[in-house]
């Protein structure tokens, strides 16, 4: 059996300048806070981050990710929500951070099809808005729809409640959110967990993310 348990520094050494990373979670729920904190200490730059949001709503999240943007580690974000995050808006206005706003359902589906080997899908979401600029349009059943392409990543940083040594993971409540989709769409997956159990302790029908998608497991104390 391949040993997937590793320390957080070794795991994050995989992230290289210029990489595209996916970050799981919906604000704080299911967000790999400890991985983000440690990533901020690494000497990498020009990252593109794909995430549901930039987490303006929680001080723990903000404290974890602020230096990623202040140090210009992350140069582009692909997100569904920016909101009133003052730092992010400031950097965008100053031209130091580029961004792509993606409707949440479209974001989830673009990640899902990347992990499923699907080349694209059509959706009416975004028709008549700036979201359609530069995209192929097609009239389907009398309705104009946009072609949306898959989103891939070099590395996915995700968070689960517990996993066994093979990486079979279980999430708490809504913390599952984007995490399994991102694990399927990335070349390398680093899983942050609060608890590690022995192989066989998690019943097969309880597994919410199979270990085949996980490359590295990092045990961290819950924030």
Report the β-strand fraction as a percent range.
25-35%
* Total of domains: 1
Mean pLDDT, to the nearest integer, reads 92
Task: Summarize the amount of helix as a percent range.
Answer: 10-25%
CATH architecture, by name, is 3-Layer(aba) Sandwich
Structural class: alpha/beta
Per CATH, the superfamily is Glutaconate Coenzyme A-transferase
- Unreliable segments of 5+ consecutive residues: none
- CATH fold annotation: Glutaconate Coenzyme A-transferase
Helical stretch tally: 6
> Could you tell me the number of beta strands?
11
Give the overall form: globular
Reading the helices and strands in chain order gives HEHEHEHEHEEEEEHEE
Radius of gyration: 18 Å
- Oligomerization state: single chain
Q: CA-to-CA gap between the ends?
A: 30 Å
Please describe the topology of this protein.
Layout: H1 8-12, E1 20-23, H2 33-39, E2 47-51, H3 59-70, E3 74-79, H4 86-93, E4 98-101, H5 104-116, E5 121-123, E6 137-140, E7 143-148, E8 153-164, E9 169-170, H6 179-185, E10 186-197, E11 216-219
Parallel strand pairs: 1-2, 1-8, 2-3, 3-4, 8-10, 10-11
Antiparallel strand pairs: 5-7, 6-7, 8-9
